[in-house]
Specification:
This protein is an alpha+beta fold. The chain folds into two domains: 47 residues; 73 residues, Outer Surface Protein A, domain 3 (Alpha-Beta Complex). It contains two helices and seven strands. The chain has a seven-stranded antiparallel β-sheet with strand order 1-2-3-4-5-6-7. A hairpin with a 6-residue loop joins strand 3 and strand 4. It is elongated and about 70 Å long. The chain starts with 8 loop residues before the first helix and ends with a strand.
């Protein structure tokens, strides 16, 4: 987190001018931002590598409006990440080993629509619904 620029009296005692103290603080903050930027770039590279691996193994299927992760043993869909072109909402659907819907997390696509989370029993009945 960036700290506000301020002149420290200790710097004046050490013979630093206000301008030099500000330059030192700016240099320190720039170095911190560079470290954070490297970390974010590394995370993005790792995510891209995972995407390539999943796609090459056939465990992930990319469609126009959704991505599906499949169970490598059965080939059944297990997780679907997608969008709804009708209202612009996005969501994640998690399925059990039998292909039954177990969890849905969705964003509201319309301006005043709230996100939703629903947890389902194996028989398809909603156990808990958060809206």
């Amino acid at each position: 987190m960036l700290t506000p620029l301020c002149f420290n009296q200790n710097d004046a005692i050490k013979g630093k001018s206000m301008q030099n103290a500000m330059i030192d603080q700016l240099a320190s903050e720039i170095m911190q931002l560079k470290r954070e930027n490297r970390w974010i770039k590394g995370l993005i590279a790792a995510m891209a590598a995972c995407l390539v691996v999943f796609c090459s193994l056939g465990a992930m299927r990319l469609e126009e409006d959704h991505i599906t992760l499949k169970d490598p043993n059965t080939g059944r869909p297990r997780i679907t990440l997608g969008t709804n072109p009708a209202n612009g909402s996005t969501g994640i659907e998690i399925l059990d080993t039998q292909g039954r819907r177990r969890i849905i997390l969705a964003t509201g696509g319309l301006p005043n629509e709230d996100p939703a989370l629903a947890i389902f029993h194996a028989n398809g009945v909603v156990i808990k619904d958060f809206k």
